Amino acid sequence: MSAYIKKIFVTTLILAATCFVIPLQTNAQHYAIVKGSDVNVRSGPDKSYGVQGVAKKGDTVTITNESKGWSEVTTSKNINGYIATSFLEKFGSDTSPIPPIKERKSYWWLILLVIIVFFLAGRWLQGKKIAGKKTATPQPKPVVTNTAPPVQQQTKPIAPQPVQQSEPVIEKPVETPAPIPPPVKPEVPKEEEAAPQPLLPLVQVEELPAASSGDDFEDFIAAKIAGNPFLSLKHRRSDKIALEQRISAESGKYPDFDVVFKLQYDNETTEQAFAVECKWRRNFLNGSLQIDSWQIDNYRSYAEKGQMNVYLIIGYGGEASKPDKLYLIPLTEITDGNLSADFLQRFEHKADETFYYTPEKRELKLLTAH
Predict the structure, then answer these.
(1) pTM summary value
(2) Are residues 114 and 216 in the same domain?
(3) Which domain-ending residue is among 90, 120, 137?
(4) Whether 252 and 355 share a structural domain
(5) Percentage, residues of the chain above pLDDT 90
């Protein structure tokens, strides 16, 4: 590689590195969940501005700016406006849902274009330089001829020199060097063997079920509900979600079943509704169960809007279609997403027990059939 090509290559690398160092323009965004019910989305950061729309409790919004107690947001329905910051709760825990990430602007194509232009320019200039060297005709060197007559040099006779007798050479005996003893290797002390490290205890990890297992457990609970002649399934929802894009149906946030209790007696009809959320786990993490707080908030919002009770039914062990135990927990008993072993023990039932509903107390129970 010639020095000229090296200069072009180094210049191209410097320009490419400069383009990479320039920070890419990004939009600093945050995400939050609406805490209040029917929060107004206004056109400006003050109550004097008009209402653009309404954000429901539990909706996810994107925060693009914050100032003086107001947040500029974009709702899930693409409504742009301002909401009071006191009605928003930002994401910050490991159990929060993963919001979509907005792609930042990229200039990789501009960087690539600059590199290609400089490389082609270097090749073109190098080719032009080589072509110029080939077209140049070498100039013949002039031949210088000596026309002057040769000069005759006069030689002087050389006087004879006396012969000097050389002194006799006395040979000196060659001294042989003494043998060099081999180097002595120093003794290296042996390192003490390290004591074996004790093995770390295994950490029990909660095994999350596959989507098919969740469907099998829902079928198991649906069959139990159908076993009571006074109970009937009104709605059954699917909570399937595209985990990569976090896209799901709006109804996927609600409990799995809407159940109706209906009793006719003496020409009077008693009809009450409640909801059921089903979850199955093969094992628990350290004996406890973790539930995302945003799911609990969605269930509470659904119970408040429908004026009904919501129950969490957890299947444990065995198979999803035939668990070893059941836990029937009213939503009103759940304060946070960490359900400890002591808490779960209060609501433990056998898997073969039957559903019973008490309309006077509006209470769902699991009892042993007689």
Answers:
(1) 0.44
(2) no
(3) 90
(4) yes
(5) 41
Q: Residues 14, 53: one domain?
A: no
112 shares a domain with 10:
yes
Exposure string for 329-344, b = 16+ CB within 10 A, e = fewer? bebeebeebebeeebb
Q: Supply the range of the domain harboring residue 63.
A: 30-90
State the chain's mean pLDDT as an integer. 77
Residues 48-69 have pLDDT tens digits of 999 989 998 889 999 999 988 9
As beta bridge partners, residue 242 has 247
126-167 pLDDT, tens digit per residue, is 777 666 665 555 555 555 555 555 555 555 555 556 555 555
Cβ-defined contacts of 67-73 (< 8 Å, 24+): 70/45, 70/46, 71/32, 72/45, 73/32, 73/41
Q: Which long-range contacts (CB under 8 A, 24 or more apart) does 21-25 make?
A: 22/107, 24/104, 24/105, 24/106, 24/107, 25/104, 25/105
Residue at 206 is within a domain: no
Q: What is the tally of helices (H) and strands (E) in the chain?
A: 5, 19
303 conformational bin, left if phi > 0, alpha if psi -120 to 50, beta if neither: alpha
| CATH number of the domain encompassing residue 60 | 2.30.30.40
Specify whether 7 is located in the same domain as 55. Answer: no
> Around 352, how many Cα atoms within 13 Å sit in the side-chain half-sphere?
3
At 190-227, the pLDDT tens digits run 555 555 555 544 444 455 566 688 899 999 999 999 99
365 in Cβ contact with 330 (< 8 Å): no
Q: In whole angstroms, give the CA distance from residue 362 to residue 349.
A: 19
Stretch 104-129: mean pLDDT: 75
Question: Whose structure tokens read 């059954």?
Answer: 236
Under 8 Å between Cβ of 97 and 60: yes
Identify whether residues 223 and 357 lie together within a single domain: yes
Q: Pairing between strand 30-34 and 354-358?
A: unpaired
The two structure tokens encoding residue 327: 């836990």
Which string of b and e fits 134-167 if b means at least 16 CB within 10 Å?
eeeeeeeeeeeeeeeeeeeeeeeeeeeeeeeeee
CA distance 39 to 34: 8
